[in-house]
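[SOLVED] Need 3D model of a two-part complex

Original post:
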Amino acid sequence: MSAYLIKRILFMIPLLLGITIICFFVMHLAPGKPTDLQIQMNPKASTEMKERLMSMYELDKPIHVQYWSWLKKIGRGDLGTSFSSDHRPVSDKIRERLPITILINLLSLIIIIAVAVPIGVLSAVHQDSLFDKVTAVFVFIGFAVPTFWLALLMMIFFGIQLGWLPISGLRSLNYEYLSTWGQLLDLAKHLILPVFISAFGGLAGLSRYMRANMLEVIRQDYILTARAKGLSERQVIYKHALRNALLPVITILGLSIPGLIGGSVIFETIFAIPGMGQLFYMSVLARDYPTVMGILLIGAVLTLVGNLIADASYAVADPRIRIS
Amino acid sequence: MTFWEMFYKNKLALTGCGIVILLFAVSLLAPVIAPYDPGAIDLKNILAPPSAEHWFGTDQLGRDVLSRMIWGARISLKVGFVATGLAILIGMILGAVAGYYGGWIDAVIMRFVDIMLCFPTFFLILAVIAFLEPSIWNIMIVIGLTGWMGVTRLVRADFISLRERDFVRAARSIGANDARIIFIHILPNALASILVTATLGIAGAILTESALSFLGIGVQPPTPSWGNILTAGKDNIDIAWWLSLYPGLAILITVVGYNLLGEGIRDASDPRLKR
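Solution:
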C-alpha cells in the first residue's frame, strides 16, 4: 500500500511539470504583454520605461530561461510576486482566497452525495416506477442546464423578486455589528445560492451513475444468496447491495474535482465571491502571469491529491482491488 | 429491426432530431427570419420588456433580443461542430493507434489522456483563450484541443476488441497495410459509438462556449451569441429578466436536443436492445 502511494506521488511530478510547461509556454507566447496595460494607463510612458518594466519582470529573457527561474522559485516554495499594482506575494493572495473556495466545494460535495445517492438507490430499487421516471427527466434536464444561467434565474427569483437571499458577496454591510450567531447566519445566507449552483452540475451525473451501479449490483449472485438465506428486503438492499454500489462512487467523486474547481470560476464571478476562481479570472484578464501560474499549479495539485485520496480510499474500502 | 426502424420508434430521439433540424434551419435562414437587424441600435427603446414588436424584449442598446438570438444560433452551431470535429479527429487517431498497436505506444498515449483528464480543463481553456485574442476560431480550437480524451478511450476500447477478429486477420493475410486495416477495416465498426460521442460532444462544446462568452472572453460583442446576451442579462439583472431568461432557455433546449439525439443513436445502434 505505502509503496503504491509513493509511486503515485512520484508520478505526480512529471504530470505537474507537463501541465506547467504547457501553460507557461502558451501564456508567454501569446501576443500582448502584461506591461501593455500599465503603459496604456500612463501617457508619459516612454520606450525606456517599458524596457525597464520588462526587465523588472524578467520578460526580456528567453522563455525557457524564464520557465527555469520560475521552476527554481517553486522548488523553494516561492510562487513569485504578483504583477498587479499591489505587488504582493502570489502565495499570500492565494492563501487568503483558498479557504472559501474549498469550503464551498466541500459543502457542495456533501450535498451532492447526500442527495444523489438516495435518488440513485431509490430509482434503481423501484425501477420504472413513477419516481424513477420523474427523476430521469430531472437528471436529463440537469445535464443540459447551463449552471451560470440557473444562477442568474435564481438570483432574479430568490434575490430580486422574493428578496429572500443576498445575490452577491459573502457578507452584508452590517456584518460587523451582528452577533456571532447573526454573522454565521449571514454567511450561511450568502452561501446558499453559490453552494446550490456548484452542487447542481454534479447531482445529475452522480445520481444517474448511482442508479446504474445499483441496478448492476442487484443482479449479482451474492444478492441472490442474501435473499435466499431469508434476509429482509431492507437488509438486502441497504446492507448488502448499497455497500457494494457505493464503492465506485469514490472514484467518481475524485474525477469530479476538476469540474468543481473549474466551476468555481463561474459561480465566484457571478456571485462576486472573493475566492480562488474569481482571483484567477481577474488575473487572467490582467495578464498577471505569476498569479495565473500559481493558481493553475494549486488547482492541479488539488485535483491530483483529490484523485490520490479517492484511489487510496477505494483500495482501503474494497479488499478485492488492494494493490500489493 | 434495422437501425432506422429502431430510431423511428423512439419518440424522444425523434424530438431531439427535430430540435437539431430546427436549429439548422434557424441558423441557415437567420437573415430571412430575424425580424430586425441584430446590430440595429434603437436608443429610444432601451431595455424594453417583451411586447408585440419585440417578442423577447430589447437589450441595453435597444437591439432586438429575438433577432440576436437567431443570429446567435449560428455561433452555437459553428462552435459545436468545428470544436467537436477537431476533438473527434484527434481522439479517433490517437485511440486507433493506441488500441491497434498496444504496447508502449498505448501506454504513452493513455498516460497523456490521464494527464488531460485530471486537470481542471476549464481553467486551462480560460487562460489560453484570454491570452490569445478571444475570437470564435480560437474558442473552437481550444475547446476541441481539450475535449478529445473521451473519444480516445472509446475508440481504443473498440480497437482492442476488434483487432484480433477474423476479418482483420483476413485483411492482413491478403497484404493490407496497417493504415488500411485501421481506417478501412476496423474504424467503420467503431463509427456508431463515435457518432454518439460526437453528438453529446457538440452539446458540451455549446455549453462551454456559452460559459466563456458569458464571462466576456468568448465571442465578442457586437457579434451576438447566447452567452454574451446573458452577460447583458447579468449586468441588468434587477431590471431586465428577459435578457437572462430566453438565451439560457435556447441553450437548454439545444443541449437537450443534441443529448436526446445522441442517446437515440446509441439505443438504435446497440445490438443488445434489438428484439
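Edit: The mean pLDDT of chain A is 82.
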